[in-house]
Specification:
The complex is a heterodimer.
Chain A: H1 6-12, H2 16-29, H3 33-38, E1 42-53, E2 56-67, E3 71-75, H4 82-89, E4 99-107, E5 110-111, H5 119-125, E6 126-129, H6 140-150, H7 157-167, H8 171-174, H9 187-199, E7 205-209, H10 217-230, E8 235-239, H11 243-249, E9 252-257, E10 261-267, H12 268-273, H13 278-284
Parallel strand pairs in A: 3-8, 3-9, 6-7, 7-8
Antiparallel strand pairs in A: 1-2, 1-4, 4-5, 9-10
Chain B: H1 4-37, H2 40-48, H3 50-71, H4 75-107, H5 118-138, H6 141-171, H7 174-178, H8 182-221
Helix pairs in contact in B: 1-2, 1-3, 1-4, 1-5, 2-4, 3-4, 4-8, 5-6, 5-8, 6-8
The chains are: A alpha/beta, B mainly alpha.
Chain lengths: 289, 228
């Protein structure tokens, strides 16, 4: 059981560099051989994760394994807890005072809710892209380099910025205007800039919370193509309200339904062609929801 | 229930396909009647009605494409539309085979091999078609298997009928009688060919009925066991 008190979050951010070292060490040494076997090819493993906001339960006993280098989609009606689950993976729920998490959530075998895990360090390994593009009021270059700077990461920043922008499929459009403000880009470009920012620290997992819902169809297509490419190097977990988008881009789909219940988790083809659960069938065919 | 217009469109598609199947079955029945009675009027009725079936087919094909493009169906809805899309092709082909029966009726110049029970074969395939469409309407899995099982019966009947025609032709003195008359010989050969084609066409009606049952099983259970 983990109580995400503000006090714990504040305390854990005092020395992020030291904590990052601790999480790195834990991951490489503390996982038992049976765990390694169990989590083979699994990057994130949730076991009986429940979340409350004050007295209201938002997630009920969620258990699922998120596979490496694949796109896992979370779908479900509003209020079903899919974004809450996403935010558990990098402990963004710690930022909400009323949030209370129970259960285990492992990143490569290490419970991210263990006391010795620093959420800030965790978030460098688990990057996040939000619904609305939110570049900083800085240059394109600085937007990407920001994450590197705050963690004093060593290396050739020019090279990392260029590679990150290339991986985010934005380099060709901005390479001659890196000093221009990120806010002057189009919505789709801003979102790809945010993706470049998220991947610059070279995370293992990228969480995306409805990353294309504020974009036009062309920009959405670019983001979807990009997500598929990113999965070659990263593990991607995406929350989307757009079921067709989940069907197009994901390998695995988790269907959450009202009450914070994970009703079905399977290969995306299986979910959209022949789901086991009648409730999932009714939801994805639009018979309710 | 959400998406009520969409759900209504699916129901409408199902009803329209069932109506098309009734028309096709009626044409097949009429074709068999024409053949049995050598009734030219019935034969022309079947031939002239083919355009109506083709138009229904094209309209329903468009309806399926519209539903896929505009509604992005998934799961059981997707399987229903995918199965329906294939089933209307089978129905249209059965319509073509019924037209062939009309053509054979008009072209046949003599009553050949009355001991070949073409009507029994034809009525069996008609039963299979109607049973397959009942299975489609009711998503009846057992009925799908039952239709598929009857295909062997039809194949055996058709094979036996073809053998009978060839054996009778060889053993009878008909060939000897007609050998001296080239025109007579050519006419006889055409009638024999037509008879064998009729047997083959009826066998194909049975195959299309099995296809419909196989698609229905996929639609109902996501089971492709009968698809081969």
């Amino acid at each position: 059981m983990t109580d995400n008190s503000e006090q714990e979050y504040t305390a854990s951010t005092d020395d992020p560099t030291a904590d990052e070292m601790s999480i790195e060490t834990d991951v490489s040494t503390s996982v038992s051989s049976s765990d390694s076997t169990q989590h083979a090819n699994t990057v994130v493993s949730a076991e009986n994760v429940s979340v409350w906001y004050n007295d209201e339960q938002a997630l009920q006993d969620i258990t699922l394994d998120i596979p490496e280098n694949q796109v896992t989609a979370m779908i479900g009606p509003s209020g079903c807890g899919k974004s809450t689950f996403l935010r558990c993976i990098n402990r963004m729920n710690d930022l909400i005072d009323a949030a209370h998490v129970e259960g285990d959530l492992h990143l490569r075998g290490k419970n991210v809710y263990d006391d010795d895990v620093d959420p800030v360090a965790l978030r460098r390994r688990v990057g996040m892209v939000f619904q609305s593009p939110n570049p900083f009021p800085k240059s394109i270059y600085d937007n990407v380099a920001y994450g590197l700077e705050i963690q004093d990461k060593e290396g050739d920043y020019d090279e990392i910025v260029e590679q990150s922008l290339k991986r985010a499929a934005l380099w060709d459009e901005v390479k001659d205007q890196l000093d221009q403000s990120g806010l002057e880009l189009s919505g789709g470009q801003q979102q790809r800039l945010c993706i470049a920012r998220a991947i610059a620290p070279d995370p293992e997992v990228i969480l995306m919370d409805e990353p294309a819902s504020a974009l036009d169809p062309v920009a959405t297509s670019q983001i979807e193509d990009l997500i598929s490419e990113l999965a070659e190097e990263y593990t991607v977990v995406i929350v989307t309200h757009n079921m067709q988008q989940a069907a197009r881009i994901s390998n695995k789909t988790a269907v959450f339904l009202t009450g914070g219940e994970l009703v079905e988790f399977d290969d995306t083809e299986k979910i959209f062609e022949n789901p086991e659960s009648q409730r999932v069938e009714d939801y994805i065919t639009g018979k309710f929801g | 229930m959400a998406r009520t217009d969409y759900q209504s469109s699916l129901e409408e598609l199902r009803d329209d396909i069932l109506y098309m199947s009734e028309v096709v079955a009626e044409r097949l029945r009429t074709g068999l009647d024409a053949l049995e009675r050598k009734d030219e009027r019935l034969a022309r009725e079947v031939i002239d009605g083919d355009d109506e079936i083709n138009e229904m087919y094209l309209k329903l094909e468009g309806d399926c494409v519209d539903l896929i493009a505009l509604q992005q169906p998934v799961a059981s809805d997707l399987r229903f539309i995918a199965a329906s899309f294939k089933i209307i092709t089978d129905l249209e082909r059965i319509g073509d085979l019924a037209v062939n029966l009309g053509g054979y009726t008009l072209d046949a110049e003599r009553d050949l091999f009355p001991d070949v029970d073409m009507q029994r074969i034809g009525r069996t395939t008609l039963d299979m078609l109607e049973d397959a469409m009942d299975a489609y309407a009711n998503e009846d899995v057992e009925a799908c298997y039952a239709v598929a099982d009857r295909d062997d019966e039809v194949d055996a009947m058709c094979e036996a009928a073809s053998e009978l025609v060839v054996r009778d032709l060889i053993e009878s003195d008909r060939l000897a009688d007609d050998l001296d008359d080239d025109e007579e010989m050519e006419s006889l050969m055409q009638d024999v060919s037509r008879l064998l084609l009729t047997i083959r066409d009826l066998e194909r009606v049975g195959d299309h009925a099995v296809n419909i049952a196989a698609r229905t099983l996929y639609m109902a259970e996501n089971d492709d066991e009968l698809l081969y």
